[in-house]
Design goal:
disordered C terminus, single chain, 32% helix, two-stranded parallel sheet, 4 helices, three-stranded antiparallel sheet, alpha+beta, 12% strand
Length: 154
């Protein structure tokens, strides 16, 4: 088995296109993006779909790196022949898990609903519904702020 690490990131690619979402969800996501853009937001979609193997890798990588998950206790997944333990070297296992955070596991939540989850980064120069009020009152726009919808940070 091959040890864990960043090399696994590209083996199970996902998508950042709303067109790859489940048909029941796709139209709603496009409508949401359009509404945000009409309100002046800049929308960057970072992920719309992850295959189960990538979700498995991201989940357990995050658990090792952030919650001290014992690599030897991770259940195997068919099709992902990975050695989480690094042949018993716990320091190397944690280091590899931390490095793999760069593949997107850093913002991972513990539950992933495949085909229905989208990760967005929205840049707003000000709250969309306050723009006309601020302009009417002659106030300067507020400074930019970042928010991640479905990512849990603001």
């Amino acid at each position: 088995m091959e040890v864990s690490g960043p090399q696994w990131c590209s083996r199970f690619p996902g998508s950042a296109s709303p067109d790859d979402l489940h048909p029941d969800w796709r139209g709603r996501v496009w409508a949401f993006i359009s509404a945000l853009e009409r309100a002046g937001a800049e929308v960057k979609v970072s992920a719309t779909w992850r295959p189960p193997e990538r979700a498995y890798l991201m989940h357990w990588c995050w658990m090792i790196a952030n919650l001290s998950q014992a690599p030897a206790a991770i259940p195997p997944m068919k099709g992902v022949d990975i050695d989480w333990t690094h042949h018993g070297d716990s320091r190397a296992a944690r280091s590899a898990a931390t490095a793999t955070d760069a593949c997107g596991a850093g913002s991972l939540k513990s539950e992933i609903k495949m085909f229905l989850v989208s990760d967005f980064c929205v840049l707003l120069s000000e709250a969309p519904n306050t723009r006309s009020r601020r302009e009417h009152q002659g106030q300067a726009p507020s400074s930019p702020r970042r928010s991640a919808l479905a990512g849990g940070w603001a």
